[in-house]
Amino acid sequence: MKVVKLYLLLLTLTAMIGLCASPALSIDAAPANISTHAKASALIDVESGRLLYSSHGDEPMRIASLTKIMTAIVAIEHGRLTDMVKVSKRAVGKEGSSIYLKLGEKMSLSNLLYGLMLRSGNDAATAIAEHVGGSEEGFVYLMNEKAAQIGLANSHFMNPHGLDQEGHYSTANDLAKLTAYALKNEVFAEIVRTKVKSAPNPHEKWDYRWRNKNKMLSMYDGADGVKTGYTKKALRCLVSSATRNGQRLAAVTINDSDDWADHKKLLDWGYQHFPLHTIARKGEEIAGYPYIVGQSFRYPMRSDEEGGIHKKLVLIDPVSTAYRLGERGKLEIFVNDQRVGAVPVYDQGDVRLQQPDRSERSKQTLADFRRSAEEHTVAGRFKNSIQALFH
Fold this sequence. Notes:
Strand order of the largest sheet: 1-14-15-16-12
Strand content: 15-25%
Low-confidence stretches: 1-26
Order of helices and strands: HEEEHEHEHHHHHEEHEEEHEEEEHEEHH
Mean pLDDT: 88
Radius of gyration: 24 Å
CATH topology of the largest domain: Beta-lactamase
């Protein structure tokens, strides 16, 4: 009987921390003092996934080469970056923007991804799709599977490059969500912030040299991505990202005649009105309980929302697997009665509190990617020769 009473107590026990106030959060409550020239636009805080601004954000539209954001993240997650990809006739013959691959040429998947994202190579997109997906059609299946997985409710992909095709579309809000997801992958983030990239050229003595089409990288302080796009039907499309004071924002515009200026304005507006606030800190104690917060939590908020923060400790079933593995519950976080996230809580002294937020596996993956992307370039061969002299 005592065990049953303890079980019921633990299931129902909650600790209220902080204050409740105000109506529920929504982007409608944001300052309405901004507009763009775009047919559709959105702004998102990458870490939290909070949409800070949206105009016609759920309207399906043609998205041109913004498609390649999905192509890149699917290839990174499903492919082996060190693989050598053989270029097919179908890839070489793809119309539109190109990195001018030749039939039968072999290039590492890592370098093809640079050609895809910096120069928007449709030939690179096709070669990547055929290699990773077994066929272009097989890869498109993976793209739509990923869209469903991350909750892109108004997107559908028909190809990996973004050339106009019926049934191929997305929205500003979906592209913002996709970009926030992709930027959390360190390989993707490394590629899209690169201004200039060299890659081995098997046909000449000099390397390929690709300069990023994304002018935001040079025009905006802290800019670190992401992708340009254009077709005659989609017109000018752009996704940009920037990081300031530890906060990364991503802006999306579709069919925008003045996109560079609009993106600077969107990003400035986001940093001004929605700075990140640390609501929970890893390692802090929970008052009245022998538990420790297991993960930090930050959230972008306007100044008038700060008084609406409250937290609720929800303990888990002591006979559950998670409990036996050391977790004691979740600290749920609310802003103006809207749940915006949760972090795990552990016993004091739990070994997980000593673990770094970035895993060793993640560090190694990024190191392997950098190495595979540099191998066999002129600069890489020179670097290897110098290193050899000192060993």
